[in-house]
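The records we work with from here on pair a chain with its fold. These numbers are not coordinates but entries in a learned vocabulary of local backbone shapes. To see the layout at work, look at the sequence and tokens printed below.

. . .
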Amino acid sequence: MSNMEKYVLITGASSGIGREISVQISQQYNLIIHGRDRQKLESVKQDCNQQSVVMIWQNDFNDVENIEISLKEFIKASKISVSAFVHSAGYMKMLTIKATNLKILNETMNINLYSAILISKVLANKVVNGSDLSGIVFISSNISNFGSKAFSAYAASKSALDGFMRCLAVELAPNVRVNSVLPGGVRTAMTEAIYENLQVIERMKAQYPLGLGETSDIANAVSFLLSEQSRWVTGQQITVDGGRTINITG
């Protein structure tokens, strides 16, 4: 099967990193792009390679009870199988532990973690998806392995996602490779609030040996992990953060 016959499911495709991944990956693959806002997804579709097939799966991951049946019905109705899955859907609410509540925790885990697990379950089911699945990439965060004030719920969801990634990589080998990409500071709609403070931007620039990143840097890493160039890579956290996490300069 050639790349242009393969379908890659990209969640959170309506903006930020997910949008960039969709546009870049569409040069090589057919796509299923996911999001909550159909109008935004239609806009992404217009920016994708017009030679590839781009389907839209509209779904709200906060309604976790509905994810499995919705995806199964979509695959069946479309008469396709999914060869790769990129989970870029994400939710981040910066709150101290005092301000954190169950609603925020549930929404964070539903979108960042539980949806990834449930989609992986559906796609790994050969009765539903055939035997075409060969790659899964989770968009995690470099905070998965570190600590920061007001990020407890978000960091917990990403650490859990990476724990799931490692177990799934062992369980689905040798037919499916499973990895995570851990971005550093990339400016998106989700992180815009952080970048509103000029002092924060200057401090971040000083902390990143290669400067601040762009969404295309993350998309490039995903493209590598979906390709045969990474045929011997699975169960790995691929950190793409301009050297931020190795910089201990005072």
